[in-house]
Backbone:
């Protein structure tokens, strides 16, 4: 303000001196010239200076508002990526085998068991690291584990205890603790800058004992790329802080780990997002911030001049001085006309810029008339900023549209069970009314089949329900193929309450009937379904006395993904490959299907699943 006033005074003094010199040449009385300057030029200069200050203030507030929106959008994008990392960590944390593998027990002395554990944990780690957002996965385990010294994905828990974040991870009691950017050395890839998200794992047998720590690393470049897209003015610092005001990411790595100014920290405690003008030391800083979920970190933009505010002041000031000099040069001819043109022109240009800012996202960018004046750079900068904000908003909008379309398609693909049951019940009563008991029994069995197969949308059902589904299916087929086969259910008591993936037995039973018994010479036979528990596993056996098959053919059924059914309905058309893959995805690679068969001697399909009691009523 003081510098601008001095410049204005210098300009008026120069103009007055030039006017006095010109007045002497054309012999104008000095008193007249002085009165003219005091009545015309000085009021006009004061008016233009006030207008300049008001315009700069309006531009600054509008630009800061737009910058705050851009910062918020970048924070939203970064929050989405971090929430994805949290979801990945939760999915790994919920793995039923992870905690039991990391528990300390007598099995730690068994080389065979530890090798199997390494294999299973390696599969889990590779699955997590296959996600594009995950840079590396680390598991810190008890040093008694054979794989604790692997130092690629598995490390000794003792090596973590000297880290600064070890205590917060333990105190979080299983919660995820985000760790700011730091440099880590990896045996397989060398040094890298990463963020980490760590959580403690407890021994399921001794809950008071820590069995390990799971850390998911994210490359610092992911965060840097998102923040570098913010095209703020040079000198504007964009960084991340935690809830205590410690900087966890900054383009200048020497600043990481330091504290932000107390004035900024106190201001951020008042709300989750906002902008303020604060005096820090001897300088006035414009500070904007927004909160990142779920870490609670703050994304902060700080500068001694907010984006475009300094440029707006300079351009507005330059335009003001140019206009004033032109006015001073011409005030002897058309002072009032020139003043009106300057004010009107400046007002039109300022209002056009503000209108463009306020209409962001509602239409395409408004084409401003090409100019070579002082507002050209300001308009280009504002256009670029708005285009960037709109691009981010449109990307988020398209992502939401795709998500809603997927949800709608999923809802449209579902069958309304009530409508299906009511329709079958109506057909059943019509059959009973007409004395068609065989049709009634068929409809009743079909209704039971759909009820059991739909399972209220659940993918995990009880063993009892799965056996009931297979029995209902066979009863329906008995009505279709009269006196063609019989079936026997042989279940060990107490196993019906265990849980398993649904639709495991029905495809196997269907193959036994269609490809075993009905292809035999006399088209008659017996299907036996037995269930036993052996060493903590459920063993299902589906046996038939049909035509059987060669050992090589049985082996190929579980090794090749099924394609289009062959005319003779053999080979991959059985679909056992899909059932086997579902079991392995659910229970692990050491579970699944095995087939024992010989031509003319029937076939026995054995299903091995982990015996898991239902966690809640199914």
Residues:
């Amino acid at each position: 303000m003081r510098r601008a006033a001095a410049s204005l005074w210098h300009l008026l003094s120069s103009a007055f001196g030039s006017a006095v010199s010109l007045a002497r040449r054309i012999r104008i009385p000095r008193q007249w010239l002085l009165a003219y300057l005091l009545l015309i030029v000085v009021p006009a200069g004061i008016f233009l200076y006030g207008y300049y200050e008001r315009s700069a203030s309006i531009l600054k507030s509008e630009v800061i508002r737009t910058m705050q929106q851009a910062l918020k959008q970048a924070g939203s994008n970064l929050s989405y990526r971090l929430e994805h990392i949290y979801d990945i960590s939760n999915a790994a944390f919920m793995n039923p085998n992870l905690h039991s593998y990391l528990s300390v027990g007598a099995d730690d002395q068994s080389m065979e068991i530890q090798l199997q554990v390494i294999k299973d944990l390696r599969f889990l780690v590779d699955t997590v690291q296959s996600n594009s957002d995950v840079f590396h996965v680390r598991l810190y385990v008890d040093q008694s584990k054979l794989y604790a010294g692997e130092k690629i994905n598995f490390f000794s828990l003792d090596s973590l205890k000297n880290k600064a974040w070890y205590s917060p991870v333990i105190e979080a009691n299983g919660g995820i603790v985000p760790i700011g950017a730091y440099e880590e050395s990896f045996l397989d890839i060398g040094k890298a800058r990463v963020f980490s998200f760590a959580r403690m794992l407890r021994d399921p047998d001794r809950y008071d004992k820590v069995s390990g720590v799971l850390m998911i690393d994210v490359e610092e470049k992911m965060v840097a790329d998102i923040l570098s897209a913010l095209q703020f003015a040079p000198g504007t610092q964009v960084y991340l802080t935690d809830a205590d005001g410690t900087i966890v990411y900054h383009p200048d790595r020497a600043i990481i780990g330091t504290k932000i100014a107390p004035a900024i920290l106190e201001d951020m405690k008042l709300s989750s997002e906002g902008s303020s003008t604060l005096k820090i030391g001897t300088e006035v800083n414009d500070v904007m911030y927004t909160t990142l979920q779920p870490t609670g970190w703050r994304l902060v933009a700080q500068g001694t001049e907010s984006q475009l505010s300094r440029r707006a002041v300079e351009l507005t000031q330059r335009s003001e001085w140019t206009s004033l000099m032109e006015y001073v040069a011409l005030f002897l001819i058309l002072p009032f006309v020139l003043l009106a043109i300057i004010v009107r022109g400046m007002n039109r240009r300022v209002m056009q810029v503000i209108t463009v800012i306020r209409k962001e996202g509602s239409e395409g960018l408004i084409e401003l008339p090409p100019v070579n004046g002082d507002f050209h750079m300001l308009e280009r900068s504002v256009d670029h900023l708005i285009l960037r904000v709109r691009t981010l908003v449109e990307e988020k909008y398209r992502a939401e549209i795709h998500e809603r379309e997927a949800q709608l398609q999923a809802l449209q693909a579902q069958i309304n069970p009530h409508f299906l049951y009511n329709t079958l019940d109506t057909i059943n009563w019509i059959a009973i009314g007409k004395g068609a008991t065989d049709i009634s029994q068929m409809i009743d069995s079909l209704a039971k089949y759909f009820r059991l197969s739909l399972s209220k949308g659940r993918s995990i059902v009880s063993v009892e329900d799965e056996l009931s589904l297979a029995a209902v299916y066979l009863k329906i087929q008995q009505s279709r193929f009269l006196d063609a086969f019989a079936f026997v259910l042989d279940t060990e008591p107490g196993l019906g309450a265990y849980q398993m993936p649904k639709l495991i037995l029905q495809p196997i039973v269907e193959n036994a009937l269609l490809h075993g018994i009905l292809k035999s010479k006399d088209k008659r036979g017996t299907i036996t379904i037995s269930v036993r528990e052996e060493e903590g596993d459920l063993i299902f056996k589906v046996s038939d006395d049909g035509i059987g098959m060669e050992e090589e053919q049985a082996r190929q059924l579980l090794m090749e993904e099924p394609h289009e059914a062959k005319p003779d309905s053999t080979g991959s058309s059985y679909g056992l490959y899909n059932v086997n893959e579902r079991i392995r995805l659910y229970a692990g690679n050491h579970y699944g299907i095995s087939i024992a068969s010989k031509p003319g001697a029937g076939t026995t399909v054995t299903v091995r699943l982990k015996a898991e009691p239902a966690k809640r009523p199914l």
User: Anything to note?
Assistant: The first helix runs from residue 2 to 26.
